[in-house]
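re: the backbone from monday

yeah here it is again, tokenized this time
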């Protein structure tokens, strides 16, 4: 079950990891259009069971607060979602738990009603800021004991006090979760982008998965630096190695990792973008957009580094996140397809709406490759209990 589905990054990652969706929910209409263009169809209450891995995802368009999750009790292995980040984002107004867009309580309600085996949530690293850290720790405790429900009009600090006391006891293992969280850089997992995000993964206590650990990083900055210094990176791209200061060695405590992926790696096989707002033969969302500028504090992406963090803006956002400097020195805006590549969406993924809306959906998404790494790890951990469940059912 996918909540806060947005443009579908995490949902597609879960799909690629082998999960079948019994429900996806999203409030924003354009995002729902994107989901329908690619993998979803409006939920038919009379036939909401998927027939196989190629089935369309049953979609409920609307406010999560109006969804009855009790209909799915006993049918859901994982609840996943990128909880809306605006209350916590550095680019927002930082209202945090006072923001009516704080939808963590709806995730907890979903867990109480559907009783999944596992939960996976993604959010911005703003949750770890000192000003929000006490509330974040409260979120983790609430996820550990979601059935210790918050009373109506109860202050979260009073609820937190009750949670602390409850967690001092063992409790019913089918109503408790072992919770882990990790701040990760997407570039460390093969995404061609510097993107810091917090992942929270929880397993139901009766599954005995308290020792589960997040997957280790697979890529490193030092490996990229070595490849550029020894010339192998430039050879891959059939380019002359630029004159750079040589070093005898590049230290990396995590030896053996693959190099970071760069913007050039992500986009090198794309043709030059067409002028005019139309798709090329074989390529969608890959057309030029005029007016790119460079000024202090607004600098282009370097082709030979991971891209800057994609943000939920159209263009011209502070920092130049969707501007790229080409080999000849010219700059231009990145196309929607190039940004989708940076977010590791497949090339067949269509985004609904005008360019600005497409960019916003990408900026709010979970990079597919990062989501898939996390989803595959959760799937591997759950596999023994799922096999046991199938055996009992038979």
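seq for it, each position gets an aa:
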């Amino acid at each position: 079950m996918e909540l806060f589905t947005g443009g579908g990054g995490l949902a597609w990652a879960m799909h690629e990891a082998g999960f079948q969706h019994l429900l996806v929910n999203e409030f924003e209409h354009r995002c729902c259009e994107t989901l329908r263009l690619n993998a979803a169809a409006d939920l038919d209450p009379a036939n909401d069971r998927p027939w196989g891995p190629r089935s369309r995802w049953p979609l409920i368009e609307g406010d999560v607060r109006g969804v009855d999750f009790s209909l799915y009790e006993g049918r859901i292995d994982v609840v996943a979602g990128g909880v809306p980040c605006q209350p916590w984002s550095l680019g927002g107004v930082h209202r945090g738990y006072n923001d009516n867009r704080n939808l963590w309580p709806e995730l907890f309600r979903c867990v109480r009603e559907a009783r999944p085996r596992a939960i996976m949530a993604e959010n911005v690293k703003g949750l770890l800021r000192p000003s929000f850290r006490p509330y974040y720790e409260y979120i983790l405790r609430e996820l550990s004991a979601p059935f210790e429900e918050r009373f109506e009009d109860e202050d979260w600090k009073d609820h937190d006090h009750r949670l602390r006391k409850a967690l001092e006891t063992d409790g019913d293992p089918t109503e408790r979760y072992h919770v882990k969280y990790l701040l990760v850089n997407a570039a460390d997992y093969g995404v061609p982008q510097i993107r810091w995000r917090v992942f929270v993964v929880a397993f139901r206590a009766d599954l005995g998965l308290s020792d589960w650990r997040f997957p280790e990083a697979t890529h490193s900055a030092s490996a990229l630096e070595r490849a550029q210094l020894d010339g192998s990176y430039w050879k891959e791209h059939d380019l002359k190695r630029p004159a750079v200061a040589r070093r005898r060695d590049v230290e990396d405590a995590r030896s053996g990792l693959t190099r970071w992926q760069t913007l050039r790696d992500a986009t090198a096989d794309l043709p030059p973008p067409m002028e005019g707002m139309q798709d090329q033969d074989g390529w969608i969302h890959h057309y030029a957009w005029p007016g790119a500028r460079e000024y202090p504090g607004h600098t282009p992406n370097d082709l030979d580094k991971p891209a800057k963090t994609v943000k939920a803006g159209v263009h011209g956002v502070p920092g130049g996140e969707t501007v790229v400097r080409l080999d000849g020195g010219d700059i231009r805006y990145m196309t929607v397809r190039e940004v989708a590549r940076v977010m590791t969406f497949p090339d067949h993924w269509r985004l609904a709406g005008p360019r600005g809306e497409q960019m916003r959906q990408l900026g709010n998404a979970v990079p597919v490759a990062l989501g898939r790494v996390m989803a595959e790890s959760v799937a591997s951990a759950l596999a023994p209990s799922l096999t046991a469940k199938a055996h009992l059912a038979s």
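The longest strand covers residues 177-185. The chain is about 30% helix and 15% strand.
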